[in-house]
Write a structure and sequence with these properties.
mainly beta, four-stranded antiparallel β-sheet, 5 helices, 15 strands, elongated
Length: 358
Amino acid sequence: MKKWLFVAGIAGAALSNSCSTDFDLNADFIETPVIYGLLDASVDTQFIRINRAFLSDDIDALTMSTDPESIYYGDELSVHIEEYDLGVLVNTYPLQRVNGDTLGIPKNTGIFANTPNILYRFVADLDYTHTYKIVAENSETGKTVWSETSLVDSFAIIRPDDESVFPQSISIAPQTQYQIRWRSAQDAKIYDLALRFHYREGIYFPEGDSIQYTFSGYKDWTFETNLEQESVDGNIIITYDIPGESFYNFIKSSFDPVADNNFIRIADSIQFFIDGGGVELFNYFEYNNATLGITEGQISPTYTNVNGGLGIMSSRYHKEGRIYPLSIQTRDSIACSSVTNGLNFAPDGSTFGFPYCD
């Protein structure tokens, strides 16, 4: 979840035996696969990250971390996903080894080799009523690791009402709160909440009282992460109050004023995103403080649900809400409030003095 951002994984332990700490982190030349995976039934393509970790008496860890051959497996690793319906194997999906750099999925910069960005992927329509087991086998060493997870189910955003026939406008004032509301997803323990602010930019021509638009885009704001829920049952109404002041401060921090008074911005609309994450992911964050280390020197032996390795295999569901126009009052406030005034936003077109505040 993005933020949780992009996480990937493979191999792990059954849910009934997901916590394992019996690793010898100082054992030399013992292969330790490291797997990160979040299966998401809202998309058809799944990406898994599999690295390896080991210690060496001859090469220091920082040097090894910059060598792709030290942290990635080659053709010796075969990976597949097994799909089960009430314990009965119904499908097997082989995973393809790919370079994320060529797919527009760059790796975050850091002490580890940034390129290539080796991932494993498969394409399938996932069924949230089924369970999925990932198995990775090393043909050279004979080592096999695996992990299993259920899936987070789909869910509905009910405020704003995504099922309404007539789109409503969104009103957020600096001194008020906007309450977003959704029905919980089956098997989701934590949620990330975000909104996308859509806007346009253009040049105002006073002689013709017209605007020539030159750009349209958006800014994303994650306003809550790892929102924990007591129950993982589905169809429970969850509410969250977004402070209007925080929303306006987000806009203030996202845009710079432009000296040209004829340069105009238009606040158009808002879209909400909610990611529900599985219980294993919640446990991983709780025990490991969301530290996704790759080498053994960086991974504390606390929580993993990967049998024979380290890491996490879990699931999430990414829900994209509809796009809603901003109300007249909200457009006026973005343009003229004491927080966001001076960012070249215009009030609503029906407001006297448009495109200026006075």
